[in-house]
Amino acid sequence: QVQLVESGGGLVQAGGSLRLSCAASGRTFSGYVMGWFRQAPGKERDFIGSITWSNGRISYADSVMGRFTISRDSAKNTVYLQMNSLKPEDTARYYCAARLLPRLKYDYWGQGTQVTVSS
What we know:
Elements (H helix, E strand, L loop, with lengths): L2 E5 L2 E4 L4 E8 L6 E8 L5 E8 L5 E3 L7 E6 L4 E6 L8 E9 L7 E2 L3 E6 L1
Parallel strand pairs: 2-11
Antiparallel strand pairs: 1-3, 3-8, 4-5, 4-9, 5-6, 7-8, 9-10, 9-11
């Protein structure tokens, strides 16, 4: 049973930073891509970025490029999302997800963690 558990969300002032964690368990994730998404109230879920577990290849959405950084710790089976220079428009619930290569669909999702950025 794959389980993804996000943590690290909270309330932060604009310009501040947060680091989200996604602890993955239930299988070996070497063949997976781990993605970060967010969803603000009344809006669609947006892709933030992803990391390929096996080779560390990373991609980012244009909206977060240069401010957000994705990394992984294979020993801890954990993926991180470092968020800097946060803006009020970054307020959303942030989700971690996993997809097995070469599938494009993310099959596994965490419960999310809330990030609120005050102006």
